[in-house]
Design goal:
This protein is mainly alpha-helical and 207 residues long. The protein has one domain. The chain has eight helices and no strands. Helix 2 packs antiparallel against helix 6. It is found in: Cell membrane.
């Protein structure tokens, strides 16, 4: 089992948990839980594989991510009522999922020999699109667009870290580990300490 396969499995589990938590907030039935969990778990990786022309798409060649996501959805369906703040759980689960999925996307692009720009973009896409699909389908404000928080910039910073580490001659394994670390620290720091980038503020009209 390769490191990319392990990353895909881990991302599927954590993203599925966040998707199922969002499904609980929307009060869906158990099939709805499974659908949202699977959509969140494999959405970003599916876009990645289609854009990279990886054949077959990772969960079609190996359906284990779908099975893992479905199992997580069932577990959350019967336990979500025990969680005091499901929104907080969604947000923090998403930080870990992002830190796993970004190196999975960047690593897949590296494995196929793509250059730095594509590596960074695939890391960002894999990390953010599954959660974006989840939030749009469940009519939630997408976490990726939450004002005043770092999100997509965390994915970009992590993927750039991997590119730079490989450029300095480090193997892919440590580079992807560095990618995960930078992604999680910046995202968690945004939540815990309010780190953010400047946002656009329109100037008042001249009198």
């Amino acid at each position: 089992m390769t490191i990319l396969t392990l990353l895909d499995y881990a991302a599927a589990i954590v993203f599925a948990a966040s998707g199922a938590m969002v499904a609980s907030r929307a009060q869906l039935d158990i099939v709805g839980f499974a659908f949202i969990a699977c959509l969140t778990a494999v959405g970003g990786g599916t876009v990645r594989d289609v854009l990279l022309d990886r054949n077959p798409v990772f969960w079609m060649g190996d359906p284990m991510p779908i099975l893992l996501a479905t199992g997580v959805a069932v577990l959350v369906f019967f336990t979500a009522h025990l969680v005091e703040s499901r929104l907080r759980w969604v947000v923090w689960l998403d930080t870990f999922a992002l830190a796993i999925a970004v190196p999975a996307g960047a690593g897949a692009a590296m494995e196929l020999g793509h250059g730095p720009v594509i590596v960074v973009l695939m890391g960002m896409a894999t990390g953010s699109l599954g959660g974006l699909m989840r939030d749009v389908v469940c009519n939630e404000v997408p976490l990726v667009l939450t004002q005043g928080e770092l999100y997509i910039s965390c994915a970009m910073a992590g993927a750039i870290t991997a590119v730079v580490m490989v450029w300095f001659g480090l193997p892919a394994g440590p580079a992807l580990l560095g990618c995960a670390g930078v992604t999680w620290v910046t995202r968690a720091g945004s939540l815990a300490f309010g780190w953010h980038l400047p946002v656009y503020r329109p100037r008042p009209p001249r009198s």
